[in-house]
Amino acid sequence: MKDGTPPKIQVDGLSIGFPGLTVQHGISFTVKTGSIFAIMGSSGCGKSTLLKTMIGLLRPSAGTIRVEDIDYWALGNAERAKLGRRFGVLFQDGALWTSMTTGDNVALAMRMLTKLSASSIASLVRVKLAMVGLAASSFTMPADLSGGMRKRAGLARALALDPDILFFDEPSAGLDPTASRRLDDLICELRDGFGTTVVLVSHELPSLFAICDDGIFLDPVSKTPIAHGAPRVLRDTCVNETVRAFMHRERIQSDRPAPDAAHG
Question: Residue 3's closest CA among 38, 24, 30?
């Protein structure tokens, strides 16, 4: 890299999928330290499969994923789990345990993976919830939170072990524009305030254009990446028709005439 800083993540020649099914192949990209990197593409192209491979839930069939020059999938299970503690993950639905309070959800990883005292964990839970604007929600059950609040609670839990890499699977899905913008702001604050590196799967154009520094676009037909770059740059300069249609789809949809009322 030109500035001499090694990449946070280096993916080379990756093939992903399931037994008998290749979802994507020939995936290569770098994620710079302190950047927000987008995994883009239409539904079914393999975005979430790539994310699962990067966080250790699905072994690749070929290629390498290096985290600060450590070959992640070449490690033994114990070493890979140890490295994985540097990852924070926010799944699409928040994945909160509904039988636990919001505070207990955030505390779970600390209780399982650290030797911190109960009082220290309680203090850290308050800090993490305050970071995402949920300081008063420690004793609230997930079912009593709004959709946006559940996403922020999931983010607080992802931050429990102070990760230096955050992974998000469709973080804005199901949120209204106000809640989505607030979550975008939180992601940028983590990047700017703590130097956190972020990798996110998303098809939400406003978020992609607003916060992402770089990205990769996966094509379900060729099963390969067909574009690299910041989403707003791809929107303005990419000549690939599939990418342009994706990046301009909201404008195209808004230009369509309204259905004839007489035809339903």
Answer: 30
Token pair listed for 69: 């020059």
pLDDT digits (tens, 9 = 90+) for 236-260: 999 999 999 999 976 534 333 433 4
Phi (first) and psi of residue 81, to 5 degrees? -65, -40
pLDDT at position 1 is 44
pLDDT band per the 50, 70, 90 thresholds, residue 175: confident
Instruction: Please list the residues that pair with 18 across neighbouring strands.
Output: 21
Distance CA 41, CA 101 (A): 35
Gap between the Cα atoms of 133 and 159, Å rounded: 13
**Residue with token string 């987008």:** 38
Average pLDDT, the chain: 89
Give the pair of three-digit tokens for residue 100. Answer: 């636990």
Which residue is it, tokens 């520094």?
213
Report the distance separating Cα 255 and Cα 252, nearest Å. 5
Distance CA 128, CA 134 (A): 9
Q: pLDDT class for 139, splitting at 50, 70, 90? A: very high
The closest of 92, 95, 230 to 168, measured between CA atoms, is 92
The residue-averaged pLDDT of 8-14 equals 97
Kind plus residue range of the DSSP H or E element containing 103:
helix 102-113
pLDDT, tens only, 64-80? 999 999 999 999 999 99
Strand-pair partners of 39? 201, 216
Q: Residue with structure tokens 């020939």?
A: 26
Q: Which residues of 105-122 are buried (b: 16+ CB within 10 A; e: fewer)?
A: bbbbbbeeeeeeeeeebe
CA distance 86 to 56: 12
